[in-house]
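[Automated response] Your request has been received and processed.

Submitted sequence:
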Amino acid sequence: MSKFGELIETRIPVLLDFYAEWDEACKGMHPVLRDVAAALGDKARVIKIDVEKNKELAEALRVKGLPTLMIYKNGEMKWRQSGEQDANTLIGLVKEYF
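Generated structure:
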């Protein structure tokens, strides 16, 4: 989990997507997150975390529903929601933390 600390301890916002390959809603989020990453450029990071490969982290963060999206900045969680989101909503949310 020390790697996780390195991911979120940044001055730029980090959008995390906790997903599973078998989940249809998560599959639907892939192109949305690509659009978000492209729109935000180097002002933010978009990181996908497979809950199957990172069970310990998912449990520690109490990820129950998929997809679960979180925004971190300076190591602190700023926003969290489970379920699908559209690109414009996510871009607007992340921009609040520039």
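Summary generated for your ticket: The longest strand covers residues 76-82. The mean pLDDT is 96.
If you did not submit this request, please reply to this message.
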